[in-house]
Amino acid sequence: MTTAPIQLDTYKLGFIGAGKMAESIARGVVQSGVLHPSRISTAHSNPLRRSAFESFGVKVFSQNQQVVEDSDVVIFSVKPQVVKDVVLQLQPLLSKKKLLVSVAAGVKLKDLQTWAGSERFVRVMPNTPAAVGEAATVLFFLCTLFFHCACFCLVMSLGGAATEADGELISKLFGSVGKIWKADEKLFDAITGLSGSGPAYVYIAIEALADGGVAAGLPRELALGLASQTVLGAASMVCQSGKHPGQLKDEVASPGGTTIAGIHELEKDGFRGLLMNAVVAAAKRSREFSN
Ligand SMILES: NC(=O)C1=CN([C@@H]2O[C@H](COP(=O)(O)OP(=O)(O)OC[C@H]3O[C@@H](n4cnc5c(N)ncnc54)[C@H](OP(=O)(O)O)[C@@H]3O)[C@@H](O)[C@H]2O)C=CC1
Ligand SMILES: O=C(O)[C@@H]1CCC=N1
């Protein structure tokens, strides 16, 4: 039985938690054109947070309850430390008609479903480049195997009462702000440590590369522009060339040249190990948020 394709623009999207992650997703969704800003809402009392969303047409209520009542899809984008209280507070409004999403680091789906009194809940780990349509987002689906017409049909059951259409809806929504993957929930702490937190590691690298340029005599603006574009170009080469980053690195490092002199410095001070440690530490912190 074929179902009609999901029309994203017939849904209304609400954010509980009008912070950096919510704003990044909302900006990316609006920029992609898949949803008009008038069909997006959030709530905050702080004038700065209100104007941040109103500046691109998103409705800002004063209460969370109004957001839930106004939305078909509700994204919980508050900090992990408060998500339980917020979900419990809104529980009476979280009917099965609402598709619920959590972007909170470390908070397990089973707990979210319990607090909401609804199994129509999906976990998502996005990152802030959603704002420019370049997010790395991982979705957690509860996969249930059903016998269907004498063959296996892997049904993306998103948690009990969630449906395959819910999966398509969430995939389309987050697919509009970048690349999406699906993974088992047991990987989510590592995913959070890598791609959830990863933009911050790269921002530090860009800042440090620019500082290196300044130390070598470049004007700050030129150094920052070159550093940013070099990281963007290198990442694009990995994503588009199909080559391993090690091969791409070797293609830059001429024998006895400048690059290998720089790489030698990085290796002397354990550059790789430092990045690995950052991901592992962030994943460990994510695990601390689960009950
Ligand atoms: N930032 C990122 O790069 C990523 C964040 N996430 C996840 O997204 C979630 C939000 O993170 P982030 O956007 O960075 O955090 P922010 O602090 O920027 O945003 C959280 C927002 O929630 C608001 N808030 C606090 N309590 C309530 C409440 N009871 N009801 C409604 N809103 C409330 C805060 O308001 P106030 O400031 O007034 O307290 C704030 O505006 C977290 O769970 C995080 O793990 C996931 C991936 C990446
Ligand atoms: O720093 C944090 O906890 C959030 C989750 C992943 C990125 N930012």
TrEMBL record:
Binding site for NADPH: 64
EC number in record: 1.5.1.2
GO CC annotations on file: cytoplasm
One term of GO molecular function: pyrroline-5-carboxylate reductase activity
Pyrroline-5-carboxylate reductase catalytic N-terminal domain mapped to chain residues: 12-106
SUPFAM superfamilies from the UniProt entry: 6-phosphogluconate dehydrogenase C-terminal domain-like, NAD(P)-binding Rossmann-fold domains
Top-level division of the source organism's lineage: Eukaryota
Keyword tags: Amino-acid biosynthesis, Cytoplasm, NADP, Oxidoreductase, Proline biosynthesis
UniProt entry tagged with the keyword Transmembrane helix: no
Family statement: Belongs to the pyrroline-5-carboxylate reductase family.
Protein known as: Pyrroline-5-carboxylate reductase
Organism: Linum tenue
